[in-house]
Amino acid sequence: MKGLTQFIIDIRNSQDFEQEKKRINLEINNIRTKFSSNLSTYQRKKYICKLMYIYLSGYDDLVDLGVKESLSLISAKTIQEKSLGYLTLSIIFTSHSDTAHTGFKGTNTYFEELLGSVYSQLSHDLKIDNEIFNALALQFIANNFNLPGYQLPETSVVISKFLELANQVYSFAISPMSALLLKKKSLVCLKMLIQLYPNLLVVNDNWIPRLFSLVDYNNDLSIILNGLPVAELVVGMKPTQVKNLVASLTNNLEELVINANCDESYFYYGIPAPWVTIRLLQLLETCFLMDSSLVINLNPKDLKTLKQVISTSINQSTKSINALSNKNIQSSILFQSVGLAIFLNASSESILGAINALLHLLKSTDTNTRYLALDVLIKLISRSSDEKLTQSYNGLIFDRMGVAEHLLNDKDIGIKRKTLDLFYIITNDSNYQVIINKLLDYFPMLDYQLKSELSIKIAILAEKFAKDSTWYVNIMIRLLSIPGSSANSEFLNNEIWERIIQIIVNNDELHVKTCKLLMGKLIRSDQLSENLVKMSAFLIGEYGSLIKNEFPPQIQFQALYKIYVTAGLVSRSMILSTFIKFCNCYPDEDFIPNIIDLFEIEKDSIDIEIQSRANEYLNMFTMNSKGLLSNIIRPLPPFETKKNHLLSRIGTLNHIVGTDKSSFMVNAAKIQKKTTNGNGNGNGSLIDLGGPEADFENPFQEEKLVLSPNWYNGYHRMLHFDAGIFYESQLARITYKVDRIDDFKLLYKLQVINNSYKSTSNQLTSFKILELKSNANTVDPSYIMNLTKTPDQIILDKSSIEIEVKVRGVVDVEQSPVLSISFSCGGSFNQLNLKFPVNVLKTLTPTTLLVEEFKTRWLQINQLLPNNKGEFTIRPNTAYKYTASNIVRLVQRLRFSIVFSSSEDDPNKVLVLAAGILHTQTNNYGVLLSIKSVGTEGKHFEITAKCTGEGVAEIIAVAMGEIFQGKF
Amino acid sequence: MSIHYVLILNRQGKTRLSRWYDKTYSRGAQNKSITEIHRLVSSRDSKHQSNFIEYQEKKLVYRRYAGLYFIMSIDINDSELAYLESLHFFVEILDVYFDNVCELDLVFNFYKLYAILDEVYLGGEIHEVSKSRILARLTELDRLE
């Protein structure tokens, strides 16, 4: 395009900015006129390109010029025009919020407008049988549908269009027929789409296992690479899915890192697919951060493999290094691995070793290395969950603080910031005084940009660790006095002195102490920092009367009056408030007329705040006939703010640390406790800072699993048999055996047998446990499950699953858990959701009773639990005919002992009495059971259960009823 | 964790490429950031300062090649070195494609530059890391045009 080239040359030849701007404005006018006339495709292309160049040069007042033309280029038939159209649109079409990058104003309309105008073409290009067009449409979605923080509302006018596109994209990702190119592009799109509308995963509950299966090792590496971000997103929204992902992540890492098993074109300077490895390690890290019990529940084989992966990558990184590229990518794998090591229960020696090595790296001459070593150190320490170990890590770093200290003088401000973060994080009960003093010493030398962050860190640390309130107040006064005479102390946030005041107000013990200290400073020094003036003005106004023996009101007034002239505007208005408080407190003092004079003068102040305060106070004072002042000016009630706002301003540290570091929540409890002893008016607990807020809102909590067909047979069998077949299909058979470890601990052993192997010699691949969902209450659950053995991913013949169940209380039938598994076999994808009973009857043991004893207890229960709270009767109709001996066998199978059984001779009058003891971790219950026939067919029964626990009889009777009757 | 935007700026601060994956930035915010980022990056001393800068609660990873800065914005806790190296990978692709790439190649073929970028990074993710596959795809696209 000659015209375009010439235009670019013209601009490049411009002598100055003015000339360039002139040339561009000329062109913009030209383009405007051209666009309003009829254009050939070539011309349209040319002008669009020129326009794009102008946009690229930073001209932002064009108001969407060219959108219409880009849209018409998209519908062109040739690839060049179409791709140009999509490209221009993605550059021109932006959200409109003019308030910089703050609120999301405009995002909503951005997306709806975009989708509205481009939908029909996108849909067309996705459906057409043309791979290049498909790819262009997918690329457009991937590059333009990313709006962090925005979600498409369900009521949006474009929702149906959106859902149609989403389904289209999903089928590209998942279909075995689609080309690799489209598959990998559609995965990126899916990430955007799910982010925009998380409901996609709720509506399509079969998506998750299918998407997860795309990161299994048997996929092409590019599919895995692009599937990982989607998996990460899914896990972030649905943390329970974490365990379903770990096996395949581990498997991938094993192949890439340990076996170096990877397509040749994916080697980068001799390293197999390093970016895939890093992505895998990152996602694992996310999994561990999200599920703190993951390492305990991790399959021992996987744990071993992961440890091996980490030691391999650490070893490899120490190999001799020739190319810089090689080194960078190796180190990035190393740093990523070290960050993960802490989660794998690595021995404390190896972590101490790693810390030593990292401390050594801090001396490196390469800036990037120093920077990253600090980064990893911070991660390592902040993630260690073991308090004792953390102490020893902190100790180690503290001992060698000199190494870190010289980094405070580094030339890179990023390194200084990280060093401060490191100091912050290693502060603990034993070293806080040294560290805080060091940080205060260093403060004046620090770069201006970092001062605010450091002051916040100091304030938080002091509050968190202070054991002595005098020390705390002294440190805070020292912090607030740092800017010295500078009235322009913006970098000390107002939040700091406000927070300190909150604490002082809420702690009576500090009132006198702080006021005395501040008065001392006011008298001695002519120039105080603004922050100290504000603090003094407030506290002396509030509590000055408490120190009037030592500092008479006259002295207090003089001190503040003297400073008024030089103080900043905010401080001045605060001092005015202090003075009106004085008027109320000491109406007869000699200085009152001075105050009134001051109000008189200041009511003409040019500052509106000072003016209005002066005016109001003056009026209040002159009208003070009926005790007006004393009614308005009251002692300050304690603050109710529980949250320390400083924490939100700590900078970027929280991002690194992860989501769950409760230790970062500041706790002022120690300071506060002293007060409660001292005053007894109960104000003390008000700075009680709550624990960390729930950091996860799970939108999927209420989701219900749909059980697979035929689940009930196995479930029912398991109710009364301890071994048998749990599930069977043409592909797989699952057998079960229930073992009792002790009275209330059960072990469910499941054996998965590959049924298809004999007939078609197919393997079951990607075999995974998607979920083991307990339906017990989350608070005080009646049982706790633990997956002690996970199945192999590939099953040739058979593989086993073991689930340990600890019964804590009486388990209702409704609370039975669901096991979800998925596997592929010969190209088909299968998911099974199977419920299995953690039955109340599973933890029963027999107890021998004579008939007489049975009768006595039978009556005793009614006395013990009157109003039938101890008994329950149910009348099931059975499908088969039961005789007394059938019933005896059944009841014995459940491990009741038989007390009485009617004879076989009289099939019409069946009566079986049985007894047992029900065990749970919290309680044992005696159970009595009576089963008698109703009518003569042997198909109708009356079952009565009695139990020493209130309400338990009903659960037992219902369970018995289900065994007899079934719900087929 | 993903890339928020990719920029190529020259030493004078002229934009050679800007791809904003995070679409919540308005154009005004984009241009403002570009000016600030250029000021930050160009004032740094490559010998004594790292290739990483914290900026707007995110992290910039950048590298200078002759007169051009290749810059990327990533999450604070993402892997800086991996992206730094990935920028190098991208430059290697450009170098092969344009046969010894220089700034003028990028100036006059700016729309092509985007097509190449889209094969390496897509929607803020590292999209393809096989050099031979990317180059084959680019040849294929050229053939079709």
From TrEMBL, chain A:
<keyword id="KW-0472">Membrane</keyword>
<dbReference type="InterPro" id="IPR050840">
    <property type="entry name" value="Adaptor_Complx_Large_Subunit"/>
</dbReference>
<dbReference type="InterPro" id="IPR017104">
    <property type="entry name" value="AP2_complex_asu"/>
</dbReference>
<protein>
    <recommendedName>
        <fullName>AP-2 complex subunit alpha</fullName>
    </recommendedName>
</protein>
<feature type="binding site">
    <location>
        <position position="42"/>
    </location>
    <ligand>
        <name>a 1,2-diacyl-sn-glycero-3-phospho-(1D-myo-inositol-3,4,5-trisphosphate)</name>
    </ligand>
</feature>
<dbReference type="InterPro" id="IPR011989">
    <property type="entry name" value="ARM-like"/>
</dbReference>
<dbReference type="Pfam" id="PF02296">
    <property type="entry name" value="Alpha_adaptin_C"/>
</dbReference>
<keyword id="KW-0254">Endocytosis</keyword>
<feature type="binding site">
    <location>
        <position position="34"/>
    </location>
    <ligand>
        <name>a 1,2-diacyl-sn-glycero-3-phospho-(1D-myo-inositol-3,4,5-trisphosphate)</name>
    </ligand>
</feature>
<keyword id="KW-0653">Protein transport</keyword>
<feature type="domain" description="Clathrin adaptor alpha/beta/gamma-adaptin appendage Ig-like subdomain">
    <location>
        <begin position="716"/>
        <end position="837"/>
    </location>
</feature>
<dbReference type="InterPro" id="IPR009028">
    <property type="entry name" value="Coatomer/calthrin_app_sub_C"/>
</dbReference>
<dbReference type="InterPro" id="IPR016024">
    <property type="entry name" value="ARM-type_fold"/>
</dbReference>
<dbReference type="InterPro" id="IPR008152">
    <property type="entry name" value="Clathrin_a/b/g-adaptin_app_Ig"/>
</dbReference>
<dbReference type="GO" id="GO:0035615">
    <property type="term" value="F:clathrin adaptor activity"/>
</dbReference>
<keyword id="KW-0168">Coated pit</keyword>
<dbReference type="GO" id="GO:0006886">
    <property type="term" value="P:intracellular protein transport"/>
</dbReference>
<dbReference type="InterPro" id="IPR012295">
    <property type="entry name" value="TBP_dom_sf"/>
</dbReference>
<dbReference type="InterPro" id="IPR003164">
    <property type="entry name" value="Clathrin_a-adaptin_app_sub_C"/>
</dbReference>
<dbReference type="GO" id="GO:0072583">
    <property type="term" value="P:clathrin-dependent endocytosis"/>
</dbReference>
<feature type="binding site">
    <location>
        <begin position="46"/>
        <end position="50"/>
    </location>
    <ligand>
        <name>a 1,2-diacyl-sn-glycero-3-phospho-(1D-myo-inositol-3,4,5-trisphosphate)</name>
    </ligand>
</feature>
<comment type="similarity">
    <text>Belongs to the adaptor complexes large subunit family.</text>
</comment>
UniProtKB/TrEMBL annotation, chain B:
<comment type="subunit">
    <text>Adaptor protein complex 2 (AP-2) is a heterotetramer composed of two large adaptins (alpha-type subunit apl3 and beta-type subunit apl1), a medium chain (mu-type subunit apm4) and a small adaptin (sigma-type subunit aps2).</text>
</comment>
<comment type="function">
    <text>Component of the adaptor complexes which link clathrin to receptors in coated vesicles. Clathrin-associated protein complexes are believed to interact with the cytoplasmic tails of membrane proteins, leading to their selection and concentration.</text>
</comment>
<keyword id="KW-0168">Coated pit</keyword>
<keyword id="KW-0254">Endocytosis</keyword>
<dbReference type="GO" id="GO:0035615">
    <property type="term" value="F:clathrin adaptor activity"/>
</dbReference>
<keyword id="KW-1003">Cell membrane</keyword>
<feature type="domain" description="AP complex mu/sigma subunit">
    <location>
        <begin position="3"/>
        <end position="144"/>
    </location>
</feature>
<keyword id="KW-0653">Protein transport</keyword>
<keyword id="KW-0813">Transport</keyword>
<comment type="similarity">
    <text>Belongs to the adaptor complexes small subunit family.</text>
</comment>
<dbReference type="InterPro" id="IPR016635">
    <property type="entry name" value="AP_complex_ssu"/>
</dbReference>
<dbReference type="GO" id="GO:0072583">
    <property type="term" value="P:clathrin-dependent endocytosis"/>
</dbReference>
<dbReference type="InterPro" id="IPR022775">
    <property type="entry name" value="AP_mu_sigma_su"/>
</dbReference>
<protein>
    <recommendedName>
        <fullName>AP complex subunit sigma</fullName>
    </recommendedName>
</protein>
<keyword id="KW-0472">Membrane</keyword>
<dbReference type="InterPro" id="IPR011012">
    <property type="entry name" value="Longin-like_dom_sf"/>
</dbReference>
<dbReference type="Pfam" id="PF01217">
    <property type="entry name" value="Clat_adaptor_s"/>
</dbReference>
<dbReference type="GO" id="GO:0030122">
    <property type="term" value="C:AP-2 adaptor complex"/>
</dbReference>
<dbReference type="GO" id="GO:0006886">
    <property type="term" value="P:intracellular protein transport"/>
</dbReference>
<dbReference type="InterPro" id="IPR027156">
    <property type="entry name" value="APS2"/>
</dbReference>
<dbReference type="InterPro" id="IPR000804">
    <property type="entry name" value="Clathrin_sm-chain_CS"/>
</dbReference>
